[in-house]
Design goal:
alpha/beta; seven-stranded mixed beta sheet; six-stranded parallel beta sheet; 20% strand; globular; binds NADP nicotinamide-adenine-dinucleotide phosphate
Length: 454
């Protein structure tokens, strides 16, 4: 794979790349089936991705007609890699085995190792015989909606397809590796003004936030809306804040440190709640929620923006859902895509029905939504939120940082890219967008001492 990296960096043409032989094996970050029980008896918090994620050489799988091999220049950590690495809530080998039973091509995925990663930037090396829109040499980013386009369910909103999967989580051959195998309909053009690692970090969280807030499939935010955003400097929240500001709304960002408050303010979010300083105790014990604490939280939001949120951007789940339903405006929407702190949710239904509120579920994004969200990155209207970069060998450490909420924004991983800062092909546009805006999270993390690649 090094030969590909050198050819890409020296500007080789697509024809030259197509002439290079795909190697028999490649370097990948993976978890092993035999390790599934390694954390038995430990609390989630103590399950350590540094122990379960390994870097190994694995065989290059055969290419199906609708697929492409992509040389991965950089990838990024998502929370789903944390879930895979701690084997929670389920070991992902079950997903691979199910996919393995679907077809001859699906069978390639059911292996004793799972190559993880659901974000990447890179260069197309080879395409299958049925691929029409992409060719070797194309610089791409990859979105993670992995589906079978022969399923009729995939042709209205693709996220409703019966066999919809997340690449690198529910399928094998993910993006934290030197090579990946993806469906052609996962490819999108790489934003030319970004480095490989800046480009790699966006697709999953940016597209998810776009669907949750902007798309008619989500909360369908409108100008003037007040949007409460949990984890507002995290992977999802860092894009959500930008969508609310771009869309003429008022974000109310919730974070958990003074450093993050400062970052949010620099991002343009004026209404900020430090949940640690506020010391909200929504749960008085494991089974009992405290409505007076929901009320105190609601009052703090009103004190900042003068009204209740039209939309609550939810993902922490069990810890916050009761409060989210309570503080949403009469007729408002809680849009949820996750449950990091627990998926058995409890809220007071009286506050939902009596005040005509809705809970809207959302999951990743269809190709159209991912494409439109990527276009906004390419146009410099949404900025990458990359805060740190690790070499592929440190994937376990990078996942640990996310697991333990030690990061801000997104953590990138260098795969074939030999160092940071490469891959920009439109420096003039980068200058126009502004280095300061593009690197806000990175600079902030450097000041706050967040870890980075050697
Ligand atoms: P992230 O980068 O770790 O950010 C999440 C943020 O949530 C944290 O920075 C933290 O911010 C806040 N948070 C964590 N626990 C909390 C709690 N108990 N109460 C309040 N706030 C809490 O993760 P992410 O990438 O944004 O992903 C968040 C969740 O969404 C994960 O479970 C992930 O798997 C899921 N997700 C789902 C989809 C989908 O398509 N369905 C897509 C992307 C992500 P503070 O400490 O600063 O408050």
């Amino acid at each position: 794979m090094r030969a590909f990296a050198e050819a890409i960096e020296s500007g080789a043409s697509g024809e030259d790349l197509a002439d290079l032989k795909i190697p028999e094996s490649y370097r990948a970050a993976l978890v092993r089936r035999e390790d599934v029980g390694m954390f038995e008896g430990l609390a989630s918090w103590d399950k350590d991705p540094r122990k379960s994620i390994k870097i190994e050489e694995v065989a290059v799988p055969e290419l199906a007609p609708d697929e492409a091999y992509v040389a991965v220049m950089a990838g990024a950590i998502n929370f789903n890699t944390v879930w895979t690495s701690i084997f929670e809530p389920l070991p992902t080998f079950g997903f691979l085995d199910r996919l393995g039973k679907e077809s001859k091509w699906g069978a390639r995925h059911a292996l004793d190792y799972h190559v993880v990663g659901s974000d990447a930037s890179g260069v197309v090396l080879q395409v299958g015989s049925a691929v029409r829109s992409w060719k070797p040499g194309d610089r791409v980013v990859i979105h993670c909606n992995y589906l079978d386009d022969q399923d009729p369910g995939a042709h209205d909103d693709a996220m409703k397809a019966a066999n919809q999967r997340i690449w690198g989580f529910e399928s094998n051959f993910g993006g934290l590796a030197d090579l990946t195998l993806v469906k052609a309909n996962q490819l999108m053009p790489k934003p030319a003004h970004l480095t490989w690692e800046e480009a790699a970090c966006n697709a999953l969280c940016n597209s998810t936030s776009y669907r949750m807030l902007v798309s008619h499939n989500g909360a369908n935010m409108k100008q003037g809306d007040v949007v409460l955003i949990w984890g507002a400097t995290g992977g999802l929240g860092g894009y959500a804040v930008q969508y609310v500001l771009n869309g003429g709304g008022t974000p109310v960002g919730v974070v958990s440190s003074a450093d993050k408050v400062k970052l949010l303010e620099d991002l343009g979010c004026e209404a900020v709640i430090d949940r640690r300083a506020g010391n909200y105790r929504f749960w008085s014990d494991e089974n009992t929620q405290d409505e007076s604490e929901w009320r105190r939280f609601g009052k703090d939001i009103r004190a900042l923006v003068g009204e209740d949120p039209d939309i609550v951007f939810e993902h922490p789940g069990r810890q916050t859902m009761g409060a989210s339903v309570f503080v949403a405006k009469r007729g408002g929407t809680v849009v949820t895509c996750a449950a990091s702190s627990g998926y058995m949710i409890e809220y007071d239904n009286r506050h939902l029905w009596m005040k005509l509120k809705s809970i809207k579920s959302s999951h990743f994004a269809n190709y159209r939504e991912a494409w439109d969200a990527n276009k906004l990155i390419s146009q410099g209207r949404i900025q990458p939120i990359l805060s740190a970069v690790h070499p592929l060998e440190e994937t376990g450490e990078a996942a640990y940082q996310v697991h333990h909420n030690l990061h801000e924004g997104k953590i990138g991983v260098l795969c074939l890219a030999p160092r940071e800062g490469l891959g920009i092909t439109d420096p003039e546009f980068r200058e126009k967008v502004g280095e300061d805006r593009i690197t806000l999270f990175r600079r902030h993390a450097a000041q706050a001492g967040v870890q980075s690649a050697k």
